[in-house]
Amino acid sequence: MKQPNILLIMTDQLRGDCLGYAGHPDVKTPYLDSLAAKGVSFDRAYSACPSCIAARAALHTGMEQSHHGRVGYEDNVPWNYTHTLASELAGAGYYTECVGKMHVHPLRNYLGFHHVDLHDGYLHAARYASVPYRESQFVADDYFYWLKQELGVTADVTDTGIDCNSYLARPWMHEEKYHPTNWVTDRSLDFLRRRDPRKPFFLMASYLRPHPPFDAPQYYFDLYKDKDLRPPFVGDWEDTEELMKNGRIFDSKTGPLDEELKKQAQIGYYACITHLDHQIGRLIMALIEQELYDDTLILFTSDHGEELCDHHMFRKSRPYEGSCRIPFLIAAGKNVLPDMKSGSVCHAVVELRDVMPTLLLAAGGAIPDTVDGFNLLPLGANPSGSVRPWLHGEHSYGEHSNHWIVTETDKYIWHSQSGKEQYFLLSEDPHELHDRIHDKSCRERIHKLRSHLATCLKDRPEGMSDGVHLIPGRPYPPTLPNATAE
């Protein structure tokens, strides 16, 4: 069988529920809805370590977090993995290209891609005055380099006055064609123009949005500014102490205290999503016009979600659905997966580590023995199937450090510094409004999930488990010793 072209559409900080096809009452995503109608969407997809670097390590290596060694967020740690998605596809005969975000170290580490058009967004660690010239984001990042050529040496994405982790929102200040979302599509289209037509291609279109800054063009803000938006989810277990303390800090880990600022954050976030959707639409239309769509496999996902003021929280790294549940769908042209049950929804628990084996097997390649993920292609023909009974997730996050076990129906959370536990019956309570950790009827189930977590952590270097009991308060650095192993 002819090797399919592969398009991996990667987004940044996109919640699993903020899509039209996922049933969101406010967000409009017509092009992604169309892809879902032609493919299989996974409504129990997760990022097991939900922040940019660790999530991308899982994507590029197919490993679970204790094996790739990144269990939190830490910049400037070298990436030295032997087997990566791009290198394996290149070995299988593919011409490989990434456009947009990589977020690896060093910045120009290609991870096996033949070519990278790089834009990592605003990276504090690559912009400080002490960073050597060639390692500066203004030099190494292709979008920033291009933007300064187009608009002058002072042009920057920070000209809006919005930080890259802020809940503040305002429209893009330049012409739309200069927006980083448009740039990723423009450069992806240019790749399709200059690709080697004798080879199948692997294109990773890696968009920065809807990660803050929430700065979509004015047109997209106007779509939402007068709508009565669904408010954030707040349950019966939240503590408002941190919100009261930090709710006026623009880049805090809580949402804002001000109700109007909460709505503005929603407007900006949704605006970025619809803008992103329209730019993805340009890419899909190009595949059709160039008569490539019928021979192309498309996988769409994100690195993690965004709390967006749910439970008085903002950003990611938390164990809750807004942070760790991600969109995930597979669609294909008629010559690629003829047995796919179009428009179906799969409830299997899947994770970013599953991307690599899925795409490698679609390409006819071999899966390295370092890969922990599963091939999801059989679920296209049988969406009622499953690949794992449960998934272990985690994130080193200071006092908010956490571990969790999630299944198709429920979730157990252990806060590793305090030892606090939570339990949510997701099948009845998908927005985690009611913590049932003290519900006697759930005691046996909680014990079982706790035991799974104790087993997962047994041989870890932090000493958080003896295999039977969980041990709180242990040091929990964001990077394990094996992260930089050759």
Your description of this structure?
Residues 4-364 form the Sulfatase N-terminal domain. Keywords: Hydrolase, Metal-binding. By secondary structure, this protein is α/β, with parallel strands linked by helices. Helices cover 28% and strands 15% of the residues. The protein folds into two domains: 5-388, 3-Layer(aba) Sandwich (Alkaline Phosphatase, subunit A), CATH 3.40.720.10; 389-486, Arylsulfatase, C-terminal domain, CATH 3.30.1120.10. The protein has 14 helices and twelve strands. The protein has an eight-stranded mixed sheet, with helices on both faces. A four-stranded antiparallel sheet has the order 9-10-11-12, with helices on one face. The longest helix has 31 residues, at 259-289.
Structural class: alpha/beta
Tally of contiguous helical segments: 14
Please identify, by name, the CATH architecture of the largest domain.
Answer: 3-Layer(aba) Sandwich
Neighbour order of strands in the largest sheet: 4-3-5-1-6-7-2-8
- The percentage helix is 25-40%
How can the largest sheet be summarized? Answer: 8 strands, mixed
CATH topology of the largest domain: Alkaline Phosphatase, subunit A
User: What's the CATH H-level superfamily name of the largest domain?
Assistant: Alkaline Phosphatase, subunit A
- Amino-to-carboxy terminus distance: 35 Å
- Mean pLDDT across all amino acids: 96
Number of domains: 2
How would you sum up the global shape? globular
Number of DSSP strand runs? 12
Query: Could you give the order of the helices and strands?
Result: EHEHHHEEHHHEHHHEHEEHHEEEEH
Under CATH at level 1, the class of the largest domain stands as Alpha Beta
Radius of gyration: 21 Å
The share of residues in extended strands comes to: 15-25%
- Poorly predicted residue ranges: none
